[in-house]
Each structure stands twice: as C-alpha cells, then as structure tokens.
Amino acid sequence: MLLRALHRWLLRTIPVNDPWVRIECQVPLARYGAGARRDFAWYFEGESRVVVSSVEEVCAWLKGCRYVRDTDLFFETDFWQHPCTFERLRQGDCEDHALWAWRKLVELGYAAEFVVGRSREPDGPGRGHAWVHLEREGQRFLLDAAATAAPTGILRPWEVARCEYLPEVSIDHRLRRFVYGGYARVRLRCAG
User: Of 61, 66, 81, 82, which one has the fewest beta carbons inside 10 Å?
Assistant: First the structure.
C-alpha cells in the first residue's frame, strides 16, 4: 500500500518532459529488474582479479567480453552476476557488464552511477537496458559496457549519447538510489 502511494506520488512529481531529471528516492530493489535480488553493496564484496588504472583500461577489458543473454547462459529470464563471477566467465548481459564497470569505476574513485532504463527505439520507449554514468574532469559520460561492437564505442559524451537512452532508476557511487523522469514517462505510457 505504501509502495503504491509512493509510486503514484513519483509519477505526479517527476517532470516527464525531461527524462534525465533525477530525484533521490529509496527506490525498491525490485524496480531495478527481476535480477536485482541482492543489495547493491554486495556487488562490491570480494576481491577483484582484474587490475585497471583508468577508464580506458576498463573499456579495453570489456571489449574482450562477450554479450550473452541470461536465458542462454543461466537458463533464467534475468540473472545478475556478481562482478567477480563476470571476471571469470567474461560473458553476460547488459546488467553484468554495467555492474562490473560501475564497480571498477567506483574503485578508481569516479562518481559513477549504475543506471537501469531503456535503450530508445524510433517507435517507442525501447527495450530494457543497463549502463553507467560517470563524471571525468568535469565532463559527463555514458558508458554502455555491453556495446563493445558499437562503432561509436563504449564510452561517449553524455550530450551525444543521451538521446539513445531513457533512464528510469539508478544507484550512485555512495549507494544513493534515484528515480528519473524516464521512469515516469514509461510508466505513464504503460498506464495510459
């Protein structure tokens, strides 16, 4: 009952005309996706075996990984790997790539944010997707860790990439949760 009231309040207060407006909010874990079964602090547990010292090294390591759907790899619709497991398998879907990248960027000291939303499609809100936002030298970037084969690359300036994504919820480097205007836009479209 309380979650429904919060949901209705969010839909009324988030400006839908700008999907990138974000509000800090204790977003329930389930809103991040069916694979979000553990608190986000869990993804930072354990020792990483991959040593990286820059954003470019994070991107280079990810280019050696393979995108594989959860149904093919784990026989589940949505399963989020721990970053240490992802390091051993070097394959997974967008959440697995993004969670690993998010952890490594936070370890490097970046203000990074794990984001769940949709990749935009010309005729609608698009398919579910996960990526990372980060700030570097005062500039914002979008890191789509699963886009290893994309001609534009994994890391793109936020101003260039933002038109291709519709963010819904996120968690930052301090484990603060956020809801975006994109969440309201998708939910209002589904409700209407």
Answer: 66
| pLDDT for residue 184 | 62
Distance of alpha carbon 175 from the chain centroid: 13
CATH number of the domain enclosing 74: 3.10.620.30
Dihedral of CA 129/154/122/69: which sign?
Answer: negative
Quote the number of domains for the chain. 1
Q: According to the model, what pLDDT value does residue 185 have?
A: 54
| pLDDT tens-digit readout, 94-143 | 999 999 999 999 999 999 999 999 987 666 556 899 999 999 999 999 99
Choice between 4 and 22, residue whose per-residue pLDDT is larger: 22
Write down the pTM of the prediction. Answer: 0.86
Q: Please name the helix (run of DSSP H) or strand (run of DSSP E) that holds residue 132, with its range, or none.
A: strand 124-136
Q: How far is it, in rounded angstroms, from Cα 39 to Cα 66?
A: 25
Burial degree of 99 (CB within 10 A; 0-12, 13-18, 19+): buried
Other Cβ atoms closer than 10 A to 176: 12
Does some domain include residue 30? no
